[in-house]
Write a structure and sequence with these properties.
Strand content: under 5%
Helix content: over 70%
Structural class: mainly alpha
Strand order of the largest sheet: 1-2
Shape: globular
Order of helices and strands: EEHHHHHHHHHHHHHH
Length: 357
């Protein structure tokens, strides 16, 4: 496993825009990072438009625009607003949550492998949801609650086992990977012990799917993101300073313990909310922060670019999962798993060639 290596800032990366100042608070912004975020937001809007136009019942753009502006017919409103728009917005929200959480964990561990799905948090949320589906039973809200509780308990266990002297780093990843396999075994035991129909339902959920997701699943996640994402963005600067090491972070005035606890708690809640919405979708939290880092040319993992990249990756993957073998749709977790596996192999090969593997 490899620590993130903050690279020297090139001439192209230097701040070219004036500092943003609000009262006594100020922040430098870089032109390339701003342009990258704007480009990713536009790309997300393009995927939203494609997702509302394409389908078994294709619609012209003018009908989609009419429904979005309140001038559509009952039929087009149902297809555009209730079926397609809610689903693609769910995809973007889940992707943003996973991308932001992945950026936090990779900053905390200073390692590109330090994402929630690699170190066990999403697996813990899946265990909580499976216990609710297969053992306790209950509504969609109860399943979502089970996922949140499972993610929180797993994060607490990993933190208590990994923390030593107030620092985390590699131990968080090693303990998380071990717990990830243990919880995976628990999940398989729950599946093979369940009734066939319940096991099929749970199996589709555990792969990660956005099929039949609508407004009722979107609003709780959107509320969680509305609260959690600004908190994580506010922590982005001290997290970037912590990538230089705890000692240097303290010298720069970072309250290491408080920043680490707040970042962990908020990112775990955001991850659990995403898993409760769509299941444990693989590799988005792993790949999105590194893709965003390369796009922005930033020496650190930015929260907002990672969130936007996660939203774009998951929404476009879900569109491919819907249309590649249409009319048959397969869970989006299969698409992200196939692409993410190639990405993980390329990442490990790249680090090995650099002599850091």
């Amino acid at each position: 496993m490899t620590a993130l290596q903050p690279r020297p800032v090139s001439t192209a990366d230097r701040p070219l825009l004036p500092a943003v100042r609000v009262g006594g608070w100020s922040m430098r912004v870089r032109r390339r990072a701003v342009l990258s975020c704007v480009g990713l937001a536009v790309a997300c809007l393009a995927v939203v438009l494609l997702a509302t136009v394409l389908g078994d019942y294709p619609l012209p753009v003018r009908d989609v625009v009419a429904s979005l502006t309140g001038r559509g017919t009952t039929a087009t409103d149902f297809v555009v607003l209730d079926l397609r728009l809610a689903r693609v917005l769910c995809a973007i929200a889940v992707g943003m949550a996973l991308g932001a959480a992945g950026a936090v964990f990779q900053s905390l561990t200073r390692n590109p492998l330090g994402s929630p799905d690699i170190i066990g948090f999403t697996q813990g949320a899946a265990t909580g949801a499976l216990l609710q589906i297969l053992v306790l039973g209950g509504s969609a809200a109860a399943i979502a609650s089970g996922a949140v509780v499972g993610g929180l308990l797993t994060s607490l266990a990993v933190y208590l086992l990994a923390v030593r002297g107030g620092s985390l780093g590699y131990r968080l990843i090693l303990v998380g990977i071990g717990l990830n396999f243990m919880l995976g075994a628990v999940n398989w035991y729950l599946l093979i012990s369940a009734d066939l129909q319940d096991a099929i339902t749970a199996r589709v959920w555990i792969i990660g799917s956005l099929n039949s997701r609508g407004w009722e699943q979107l609003w709780p996640l959107a509320l969680t993101l509305a609260v959690g994402l600004p908190v994580l963005m506010a922590l982005s600067r001290p997290l970037g300073q912590l990538e230089l090491g705890d000692d240097l972070g303290r010298q720069l005035g970072v309250r290491v313990g408080a920043v680490r606890i707040w970042a962990l708690v908020v990112s775990v809640v955001v991850t659990a909310a995403a898993v409760a919405t769509a299941g444990p979708i693989a590799f988005v939290a792993l790949a999105a922060p590194q893709l965003a880092r390369r796009l922005t040319g930033s020496p650190t993992v930015g929260i907002l670019p990672a969130a936007l990249m996660g939203g774009f990756v998951l929404a476009s993957s879900d569109l491919v999962a819907q249309r590649l073998f249409a009319p048959t749709q397969f869970p989006v977790g299969i698409a992200t798993g196939a692409v993410g596996g190639v990405y993980l192999a390329a990442l490990l090969l790249s680090e090995w060639k650099k002599g850091r593997g």
